[in-house]
Design brief:
218 residues; mainly alpha; 75% helix; 0% strand; elongated; TetR/AcrR family transcriptional regulator; TetR_C_25; Homeodomain-like_sf
């Protein structure tokens, strides 16, 4: 590879890293000129590499997905659930901007958000199945649907309380915030998961009966 090509790749990588951090801190509409200043390049060079702001965001999506996929396996060996995974990842030195970007992207929606949620659901199916095999998790009539509901509830609760609801997210404070978040929710969640909410099976039995015998069409 020529030195010119190496410099181009280095500039592209530097822009992506700067963009991930800026989008995480200020939201997905952060201006290109600010990202260019962060990366020490011109806005024109960003357009040269990525074509547009959407092209830059797509490159950031690809980079972040790669980081999450690379690190997910090792953090999931020590944590349970999407929120816990993000908290663990944020603790790995230098990855708080990636986690902040993930949370901003989940807020904004789009293809990356859907891909991330699907990935979290797939992992949830796996670790719940492991729990069933170990005898610590009850079997489900529909393991995939249960995993999706639990994942979406966890991410939704996280996003509702996320500091990034504000205009600016302090990435230096994000790991500490993610550590403190489980302290507020673990007790109530364990109560719900262990003891349940409803006193009997009346509603569940009625729902299952209705699904098995749908009303006839007149």
């Amino acid at each position: 590879m020529s030195s010119a090509m190496a410099e181009e790749l280095t500039a592209r990588a530097r822009i992506v890293r700067a963009a991930v951090r800026r989008f995480a801190a200020d939201g997905m509409s952060a201006p290109l000129r600010t990202i260019a200043a962060d990366a020490g390049v011109s806005a024109g060079l960003i357009i040269h590499h990525f074509g547009s702001a959407d092209g830059l965001r797509a490159a950031c999506d690809e980079h972040v997905l790669d980081v999450v996929r690379t690190n997910k396996q090792r953090v999931f060996t020590r944590s349970v659930g999407a929120g816990a995974m993000l908290a663990q990842l944020a603790e790995i030195e230098g990855y708080a901007p990636v986690v902040g970007y993930v949370l901003r992207r989940l807020q904004a929606g789009g293809e990356l958000a859907a891909t991330l949620v699907d990935g979290f659901v797939t992992d949830a199916v796996e670790y719940l199945a492991q729990g069933e095999a170990a005898g610590v998790v009850r079997p489900s009539r529909d393991p995939a649907a249960r995993a999706r509901v639990l994942t979406e509830q966890a991410l939704g609760a996280l996003l509702l309380q996320l500091p990034a609801q504000q205009d600016h997210l302090d990435l230096d404070e994000l790991p500490g915030w993610l550590r403190s978040y489980p302290e507020r929710i673990v007790g109530p969640l364990l109560e719900v998961y262990t003891e349940g909410v409803l006193a009997d099976r009346t509603l569940l039995d009625a729902y299952l009966a209705a699904r098995e015998s749908p009303p006839s069409q007149s």
